[in-house]
User: What shape does this take?
Amino acid sequence: MLSIKNLQAKIDDKQILNGINLEIKPGEVHAIMGPNGSGKSTLASVLAGREEYEVTGGEVDFLGKDLLEMAPEERAREGVFLAFQYPVEIPGVSTINFMKTAVNQIREHRGQQALDAVSFLQMMKEKMKLVEIDQSLLNRALNEGFSGGEKKRNEIFQMAMLEPKLAILDETDSGLDIDALRIVSNGVNKLRSKNNAIIVVTHYQRLLNYIVPDYVHVLYKGKIVKSGTKELALELEAKGYDWIKDEVSVA
Amino acid sequence: MSKDNQVLEELTSKEYEHGWTTNIETESAPKGLNEDIIRFISSKKNEPSWLLEWRLNAYRQWTKMKEPRWPNVTYPPINYQDVIYYSAPKQKVTPKGLDDVDPELIKTFEKLGISLTEQKRLTGVAVDAVIDSVSVATTFKETLAELGIIFCSFGEAVQKHPDLIKKYMGSVVPVTDNYFAALNSAVFTDGSFCYIPKGVRCPMELSTYFRINAANTGQFERTLIVADEGSYVSYLEGCTAPMRDENQLHAAVVEIYAMKDAQVKYSTVQNWYPGDKDGKGGIYNFVTKRGLCAGDGSKISWTQVETGSAITWKYPSCILKGDNSVGEFYSVAVTNNHQQADTGTKMIHIGKNTKSRIVSKGISAGYSQNSYRGQVHIMKRAENARNFSQCDSLLMGDKCGAHTFPYIDVENNSARIEHEATTSKIGEDQIFYCLQRGIDEESAVALIVNGYAKEVLNQLPMEFAVEAQKLLALTLEGSVG
Ligand SMILES: Nc1ncnc2c1ncn2[C@@H]1O[C@H](COP(=O)(O)OP(=O)(O)OP(=O)(O)O)[C@@H](O)[C@H]1O
Ligand SMILES: [Mg+2]
Assistant: This one.
């Protein structure tokens, strides 16, 4: 589904991604871990098409198409979804209105008719249940004055609404209380299917108890320096990153 | 957002939608301004001699006045002798009803989305349509007359209701109030008049639609709204003009007189031609709008969405004379390309327990300059006056400017005044967030801007609000980057 080859990217003349390789098949969940500043959010942003980042090398194939050639909104319409580490506030625009615009533009892209108000509301009600989010929150201005946890939950609600093929969750667990972590993870798990894939960026093994990954990768200085299965996350939790950093410097 | 955006900008920067002209025969006064021109206008309109005297007096005062230079706008000196002060579509007969109106004119307004044929109108909006210097048709007159409501062109009101005109014209905006008001008083050509009798709630929106058509012609209309005790009316004003290389002058006066417990809501969607991308052409819009809350418990509410004009100079104001009276001002002013706007309000508190509320949302894009200028004046007698002001500016790009000039004068210590101001930018973060959800850039800007202006747009009557939202999006198309 997603094939990243030797991806390199920089921002403001600072090289951040130094040759990332990653293969993701439908139905898989990949966790990406790594120290602060290693480039995890950068990778997510580059995949989503943020223009501040300049791709300096490499290729990304998404479902047989050159992802790097596509405009950000096109990527979204083709099924790439990013749950932001820091969701953005848009004053005066309710989540409902925002999602209605998004859903209908994506539908238009797929040659489907726009949803009328009734069908949209029905769909929304279903998805609200999935992440146990309250409608009053969705009536409010998008992310404005939301608590950290509410913002993250709202991201997953949006993921549910847009039904992406590839979802990238950037530290969705940070800011969630223990109950919310369980609820949001359950929501994500319900959205898992054999046709879609998920990249989970996290610092904590805890999340991976709920969203169990097929693979775990460690990103360090803009490179994937170690890959493994879910046991790798446990090892990192116990030992920290130093041993990996040592391995890298020896190599 | 570099290359893509340039392409986007080229593709999307739309031409002004209403920039066409109608080929109708017109009858005009020669260029220039002097007492003879004023006599010409007055006689064309078959006016009583007191009105001619009133005009001549205004003209003499005007010649002694100076054009204001304090607004934060710049433009070359206006040659007032180079303007045509009267232009009227030639109609074969003087229309007595809608059936007599020249079909070309009806077509002109239909092209603007305004139907003058009553049967065709689904929504309950009565329209007075003004083209260049004259009112061409007023709809729903009979329906309104049954309630005692007078809604007609200013010219007609002068003929049929001279006492009301004599009593209230100039009572809110005196002839010598300012340079442009004096000019208007001398040369005004038409406009709308509306009187709501005691205790009557006007059942439909009243609306005036102004269209400038002829070249080199100034438009100087007057609107006078008199709301008798306990009455209510909601009034809408819309305007467009063709695209022309030269700047055209528009200097209107709007007066609202509200008696005891009367409520008047005045909404404007201003869409005069703004000039082209390089700042050539466009309307110079110098407007004096003022409401007098004369009676206790009266309320006047201004809502404006200002998107057009090359230059906007406009401060819809309220004089809160009656005790417990309320004044409101809700404004969205958008400037793009080389537009300049200096707009705001004045709230003059005279009566006790008077309240005012100001919500101003400026949006600047391109190379435009957008200024908010507001005055809150609490006079000595005004015990317990309250004011709340919120002035926000939104910047798009880094070549435009936003300025805020609030003036507060308090002569009574019991006053409570709150003032909040913010300046923000449409963030690339916000745009990217929208893009990432599959929303294209133009829709993203529209969404963000409409969200920003929501509090003001919510004040507009429903069908106008939708129109205004579209207009905001259109004005700002291709302005991110
Ligand atoms: N605009 C910028 N200019 C310069 N450096 C930048 C810019 N944006 C990001 N960086 C740098 O790029 C590096 C990678 O940042 P990134 O946000 O991808 O890290 P991360 O792995 O997501 O970290 P965290 O775990 O803290 O979220 C950091 O050193 C960061 O400071
Ligand atoms: Mg990060």
Remarks:
- Residues 2-476 of chain B form one domain.
